[in-house]
From TrEMBL:
Gene3D superfamilies: 3.60.21.10, EF-hand. Residues 336-345 have a biased composition (Polar residues). Residues 308-345 are annotated as: Disordered. This is Serine/threonine-protein phosphatase. InterPro entries: Calcineurin-like_PHP, EF-hand-dom_pair, EF_Hand_1_Ca_BS, EF_hand_dom, Metallo-depent_PP-like, PPP_dom, PPP_phosphatase, Ser/Thr-Pase_EF-hand_contain. The keyword Transport does not apply. It catalyses: O-phospho-L-threonyl-[protein] + H2O = L-threonyl-[protein] + phosphate; O-phospho-L-seryl-[protein] + H2O = L-seryl-[protein] + phosphate. Its cofactor is Mn(2+). It is an enzyme of class 3 (hydrolase). Pfam families: EF-hand_7, Metallophos, PPP5. It comes from Menura novaehollandiae. SMART domains: EFh, PP2Ac. Belongs to the PPP phosphatase family. One of its GO terms (molecular function) is manganese ion binding.
Length: 692
């Protein structure tokens, strides 16, 4: 009996170990593919930033068009935005049966919205714009770091990423109760993208924010960014649900997002930020940053931004040499030494301030003339926009320093190793270690950090000696049953209490093996990734096939696959599900790749070489299409295409006349309707690939 018990125990432990290994593999597959996609997004916008920096417009009209296209929303001033998004001019028909809003909002309005969204009803565009208008007015009054006290409520509930999963929000309210004077909430960003009901989540949260402004607090996440929304679905969702007024609604959302607070502080002891920190994170700087300047953290630099850098260096007293450390002559740059009068003594503060204002304004006028900035653009470049009279004694930070502060708190992740390094996996932010956390907490006298940004299987996870808590509220994020959602409640003692859940009923019916096993969807995603890199894989395999036998060892197969995909996956363990077993331990890699191609061709009737290109680039092509489609109409106008092509031709040193560009755009417009839709856009790439 004793031996039998030991055998059963050993069998059970091996079984549990195998299930845990499968779970970890599934997690690595989904997470690696997700982070690789985010990395592509940042690379794509870095590329457009480079194009913008290198491109020289031939006229002010051309420059204005390019600027509006790639820096969406930044040129709208207060009066222009209100006029553009005039909700009062939109009539609500008598046939409309959905919820109606009147301001100031009451709790009954929130209840009506919840019931309407449960019944799949849609809020009329007039009310959406009115709600966004009021939300923007409220957010503009808030500081960058919100302060919450547990003295005024029994506890504070902190929720993590929701990512458009409305059922999770409904379940949180069902379990924990609706926001009220005695029930405070902090929602820690990433309300949108990926899920299909991001719009409804924002409407509900903004409604409660206006009803209970002291009890509901919203932090900005890395997905509250219109450039990210272009790729991950929110832009598309808004335009599909509001075909007539979608552009106005999107414009308002872009502006509301940039006014969201950056962090929340509970009882001066617990800091809540979306991503994390770095070794340079400075709460004093974060409190003073003009956060609405950063409509997109993945911003594309405007030329006028570049011209402000020398002035900021002059204000900060920086005077760099015209030669670098190696003694080489530096590139020609503007001389910004004061030309008017000698600087007065700083003892007379008012006189010094006036002199500084006059000097900087003169130099900025010179900058504008040299870089040919129009008067409409120059309004933003006044001295008062950078430093006011009352701030002369305070430090002036460059736009780059402010941008990095926001990038780090929205995009960073913790790591178990000491130190702080660039987050190359996501492509933005940094990895910060326990030593960075400890120094940060000690500097600001904090107990611990709460952040989100990463999906966790149990919905939450501690790290850094329980000083960093990750909370994630979107259950079944990768797959049904893949993870639980969670929220955390903090009382006056600031001891965290967790509540876990799964919003999908199907998840509760899964067996233990189904929960822990690697789902077929994970391997399907992995096979698509492998197929998309067929050409690179063949080259990598041939490097191990010196005799051109068409066969390599399974060990070399695993090494080659990782060298191409760089996903950091345990390929040797995944091999049985990806490669058919062989008796001699050798793989015929060409036939294996042919099998992958056959599997994908069964879904898409296109030649394999072209399909490979589309699989590898479709997400990037779709994002590029949406960037060019400035008005989000789903169509690229001839003018939008012409100006974008000038960017590309400038980068590739291809000279093409306007007539040549017109011929090109007409050849892509297959149905001759005067616009280019996404299918025509993809078809153009297909034809180019076939001609190569």
């Amino acid at each position: 009996a004793f031996k039998a018990a030991v055998l059963i125990q050993q069998w059970y432990r091996r079984y549990v170990a195998r299930l845990e290994m499968r779970r970890r593999c599934t997690w690595r597959i989904f997470q690696s593919i997700e982070y690789a996609c985010e990395q592509d997004q940042i690379k794509l916008h870095n590329f457009f930033s480079y194009l913008m920096d290198q491109f020289t417009p031939s006229s002010s009209k051309e420059r204005d068009f390019i600027s509006r296209m790639f820096v969406s929303g930044e040129s709208y001033k207060e009066a222009e935005l209100e006029k553009y998004c005039d909700y009062e001019s939109i009539e609500v028909p008598d046939s409309y049966t959905g919820p109606r809003l009147s301001f100031p909002l009451l709790p009954d309005h929130a209840t009506a919205l919840l019931e309407a969204f449960k019944q799949k009803q849609q809020l009329h565009a007039r009310y959406v714009l009115n709600l966004l208008h009021e939300t923007r007015k409220h957010l503009k009054q808030l500081p960058n770091i919100s302060h919450v006290s547990t003295c005024y409520s029994e506890e504070v509930t902190v929720c993590g990423d929701l990512h458009g999963q409305l059922d999770d929000l409904f379940l949180i309210f069902y379990k924990n109760g609706l926001p009220s004077p005695s029930k405070s909430y902090v929602f820690n960003g990433d309300f949108v993208d990926r899920g299909k009901q991001s719009l409804e989540i924002l409407i509900i949260l903004f409604t409660f924010l206006l009803i209970y402004p002291k009890e509901v607090h919203l932090n900005r996440g890395n997905h509250e960014d219109h450039m990210v929304n272009l790729r991950y679905g929110f832009t598309k969702e808004v335009m599909q649900k509001y075909k007539v007024h979608g552009k106005k609604i999107l414009r308002m959302f872009q502006n509301v997002f940039c006014w969201l607070p950056l962090a929340t502080l509970i009882d001066q002891k617990v800091l809540i930020i979306h991503g994390g920190i770095s070794d340079t994170t400075d709460l004093d700087m974060l409190e003073k940053i003009q956060r609405d300047k950063f409509i997109s953290v993945l911003r594309i630099k405007k030329r006028k931004e570049l011209s402000t850098k020398p002035e900021m260096e002059a204000i900060n007293g920086e005077n760099k040499s015209e030669t670098d450390a190696a003694g080489n002559e530096a590139a020609p740059r503007l001389s910004l030494q004061p030309q008017s009068a000698q600087a007065p003594s700083t003892a007379n503060r008012l006189e010094f301030s006036r002199w500084l204002r006059q000097t900087v304004q003169e130099q900025m006028d010179t900058c504008r003339r040299l870089v040919d900035i129009s008067e409409s653009e120059s309004e933003e470049l006044t001295y008062s926009s950078m430093v006011s009279l009352k701030d002369v004694d305070e430090p002036c930070w460059t736009r780059q320093e402010e941008w990095k502060q926001i990038l780090d708190i929205l995009w960073s992740d913790p790591m178990p190793q000491e130190g702080c390094r660039e987050n190359k996996v996501r492509g933005g932010g940094c990895y910060f270690g326990p030593d960075v956390t400890e120094k940060f907490l000690e500097k600001y006298n904090l107990q611990f950090l709460i952040r989100s940004h990463e999906c966790k299987q149990e919905g939450y996870e501690f790290c850094h000696n329980r000083k960093v808590l990750t909370i994630f509220s979107a259950s079944n994020y990768y797959e049904i049953g893949s993870n639980r959602g969670a929220y955390v409640k903090l009382g006056p003692d600031l001891v965290p209490h967790f509540v876990q859940y799964q919003a999908n009923k199907t998840a509760h019916m899964l067996t233990m093996t189904q929960r822990q096993g690697i789902p077929e969807s994970a391997f399907r995603a992995l096979r698509e990734k492998l197929f998309a890199h067929t050409s690179a894989l063949i080259s990598a395999f041939k490097a191990y096939d010196g005799d051109n036998t068409g066969r390599i060892t399974l060990s070399n197969w695993a090494t080659a696959v990782e060298s191409v995909l760089r996903l950091g996956l345990p390929w040797r363990m995944l091999r049985p599900q990806l490669v058919r077993s062989t008796e001699d331990g050798m793989l015929e890699y060409k036939s294996w790749l042919d099998d992958l191609a056959m599997e994908q061709r069964s879904q898409e009737h296109i030649q394999s070489s072209l399909l490979e290109v589309i699989y590898r680039n479709r997400s990037n092509l779709e994002t590029i299409f949406r960037i060019i489609d400035r008005d989000h109409s789903g169509l690229i106008s001839f003018e939008e295409f012409q100006q974008t092509w000038k960017l590309f031709s400038s980068h590739m040193n291809i000279e093409l006349t306007d007539d040549g560009i017109n011929d090109l755009v007409r050849s892509i417009d297959f149905n001759k309707d005067g616009n280019i839709d996404f299918n025509e856009f993809l078809e153009a790439f297909r034809l180019v690939k076939q001609c190569q």
